Amino acid sequence: MCGIVGGTSERNILPILVEGLRRLEYRGYDSAGVAFKKNGSISVTKNKGRVDQLAKKLNLKTNQSNLGIAHTRWATHGIPSEKNAHPHHSKNIFVVHNGIIENHNHLKAQLKAEGIRFSTQTDTEVIAHLIRMYTEKGQSFEKAVFNTIKKLKGAYALGIIDKN
Ligand code: GLU
Prior knowledge:
41% of the residues are buried. The chain has helices at 14-24, 51-58, 104-113, 125-136, 141-151; strands at residues 3-8, 31-38, 41-48, 67-73, 88-90, 93-101, 154-162. By secondary structure, the chain is an alpha+beta fold. Strands 1-4-2-3 form a 4-stranded antiparallel beta sheet, with helices on one face. Bound molecules: glutamic acid. The site of glutamic acid has 15 residues, from strand 6. Glutamic acid binds at residues 1-2, 73-78, 97-100, 122-124.
């Protein structure tokens, strides 16, 4: 398990998120990523490797945001790669996760049967799809998150953004 940072601020949140990730580096990780709100949409930047490289990609001098989530990953399911790095998303839902979803195979099979396509090898991706599925059934974001958590078995700390 590695690190999660999330926040909202009147100042630019991006340097704060990166500093948070730097403080968590001692825990070990193989990749890092950030999702942040910009001009009404969510941007995602990921990097296999160091937080410093992620910071360069993020272009902290020109990028501005007031809301974001960030993650350092220590892969448990799926190889260390940019694709498997968090955040993961399903339409409007963006998720960072530390821990392990033990019943992810079972949940994945159920979601696939509903026509959901997976784009990573991680256990985490089921969380984003489940929340999206509940919101599309008309549930509020909060309710969708709580109903998703009821389905998860394992250990998890989560940071989640709904674009809306
Ligand atoms: N199980 C998740 C993955 O493999 C999260 C690992 C972590 O805690 O960093 O992507």
